[in-house]
Specification:
mainly alpha; 2 strands; 67% helix
Length: 123
């Protein structure tokens, strides 16, 4: 535990010398660091899976409206502008990428197949 000493009227924390640390401290630190890194990797994988599914859903929505209502490329261009305006910090919402999303949904029309494929990808 750190000692508090008065110095110039201010409290400061004095770190214990390495020799004062418990013998198992390095193992504790290593274990915690490993768990943090593992959690970061798992979080990144989960985000990737969710984004791929989101992109598929966006593509499916565009594709279904094009088929049902005869949407053209101009609507996709307008959609891209509106989405980028609403989410300026998010990359990947260009007109070209929306067309890739549509192609993705067209190539893989069944959501369950997409989810199964995502579950098997380890990135």
């Amino acid at each position: 535990m750190a000692n508090r000493r008065k110095s110039s009227g201010k409290n400061r924390i004095v770190q214990p010398a390495v020799a004062q640390l418990p013998v198992d401290y390095p193992a504790l630190l290593r274990g915690i660091k490993d768990r943090i890194q593992t959690a970061q990797i798992k979080a990144g994988l989960a985000v990737n899976r969710e984004l791929v599914l989101l992109y598929w859903e966006i593509g499916r929505d565009i594709l279904s409206r094009q088929k049902a209502k005869g949407w053209g490329a101009k609507v996709i261009d307008h959609l891209a502008r509106d989405l980028r305006g609403s989410f300026p910090q998010m990359k990947g919402l260009s007109s070209r990428n929306l067309k890739y999303m549509r192609a993705f949904a067209k190539a893989w029309p069944d959501r369950e197949i997409v989810q199964e494929a995502l579950a098997q990808i380890t990135w």
